[in-house]
């Protein structure tokens, strides 16, 4: 008897199972060490089933990354409507940190696991589109703030400003995800650390840091 044809809903559920299993194994063991067969075994399906959904491991990895990066950008869309540029930058930093801490496994694969560059031939993300790309969102608001002279005059590259802000928040988040269980470090409150790194960075970047609210 041929296998029962799955409904679109059932196929969607199975696809999510595959993505979750792949993400978990990629983070735990490293992308190169994981096979399609191992991913299938984790969810009690055959490798053939995975190939019905994804052409190969590269396609599966790209699908996981696409889903996670789209989720990050989607969570920032409302923030992009904040009219005050500095408030919007701070909200983007906080929203990014919130995503990282609420979805540590996603974040590990996105930003803490070595992998090949995004495959532009198969990705579903239109990079540079602020509906789909969280980095494009940050670029947009930093460039807007740069264009109206909110940053110090010696800072002539808005891209450098955006990447510095990203690096600072990433550092706090990655330390929390990787080392928060270490008892030999007297970790301060994570919200306080996220807030302070924003204040420190913006005080060093802004023309008038005295107007920066805590």
Mean pLDDT: 92
Percent of residues in helical segments?
55-70%
Largest sheet: none
Given helix and strand content, the structural type is mainly alpha
Secondary-structure element order, N to C: HHHHHHHHH
Number of H/I helices? 9
Low-confidence stretches: none
- Please state the overall shape, judged from the principal axes of the Cα atoms: globular
Number of strands: 0
* N-to-C span: 67 Å
Strand content: under 5%
Any overview of this molecule?
There is one protein chain. It contains 9 helices and no strands. It is globular. It has helices at 8-29, 36-42, 47-53, 57-76, 85-102, 104-112, 134-147, 158-179, 190-205. By secondary structure, it is mostly helical.
Helix and strand arrangement:
Layout (H helix, E strand, L loop, with lengths): L7 H22 L6 H7 L4 H7 L3 H20 L8 H18 L1 H9 L21 H14 L10 H22 L10 H16 L9
Helix pairs in contact: 1-2, 1-4, 1-6, 2-3, 5-6, 5-7, 5-8, 7-8, 8-9
In short:
The chain is mainly α and 214 residues long. The protein has nine helices and no strands.
Q: Top keywords for this entry?
A:
9 helices; 214 residues; single chain; mainly alpha
